Amino acid sequence: MASSSLSASFPLLFILAISYPVLAWGSKPIPFNDNKSFFCFKFRVHIINGFSSNKNPLSLHCWSQDNDLGNHTLYIGGDFNFKFGLASFGKTIFHCDFKWAEKHRFANVFTDGMESSTCCDTNSCYWKTEDDGIYFSNDNKNYIKRLDWLK
């Protein structure tokens, strides 16, 4: 009778044993020998003003469901950035409202499952505003145009 009780609790003990390291990691990446992470939990998002003139600086307001990051004004080369960890439950999404002179654009600058996979290698996502639109990069070197300005 005691052996059947032990064998019945074995699956539960096994699950707890293999789950403990995952739970103990919390929101820290798991390091490998090449200093890259298999799981990415912490990120930094950069919003950079890449306009050709300071005549009209970039105005932006960024927020998530849990955090209002406030209003910011960036001049050429200005970099507003913020860091965060992924939500334990639910999805992490950060939004920004961009305004430049008479143009504007709303964008999700970080969505768990989209930018999280793209930016995992560097743990950073970069958004750069240019005169013709808003560009994205995960290395601050190779940008692709993601959005056009709206009037």
From TrEMBL:
One Gene Ontology cellular component = extracellular region
Q: Where is the signal peptide?
A: 1-24
Q: Where in the cell is it found?
A: Secreted
A Pfam family for this UniProt protein? Self-incomp_S1
Transmembrane parts of this sequence: none
Q: Which GO terms describe its biological process?
A: rejection of self pollen
Which keywords does this Swiss-Prot/TrEMBL entry list? Secreted, Self-incompatibility, Signal
> Can you tell me which family this protein belongs to?
Belongs to the plant self-incompatibility (S1) protein family.
Protein name stated in the entry: S-protein homolog
Please give the organism. Answer: Populus trichocarpa (Western balsam poplar)
